[in-house]
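Methods — Computational structure assignment.
A single polypeptide chain was analysed. Its primary sequence is given first, followed by the predicted tertiary structure written as structure tokens.
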Amino acid sequence: MTEEVTTETTEQPVDPQLQQRITYTETLQQEIQNLQEQMAQLQYQIDIRVTALVGYQSTLEVIEEPEEVQ
């Protein structure tokens, strides 16, 4: 024999100021996530450029210029 337990939920009016703060917080969280994704993309681009520059730099040859005698 099983007994069914039911609970009634009634909707309570939400304070408009609280709802506005929740919406604002959610918006800020989304903006933060977008910024983090942009920063990750920029970091990736920097890594690629630094790798390319290091590769280029390793191919450069050091040429010493003769000192001028005065």
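Note: DSSP finds one helix and no strands in the chain.
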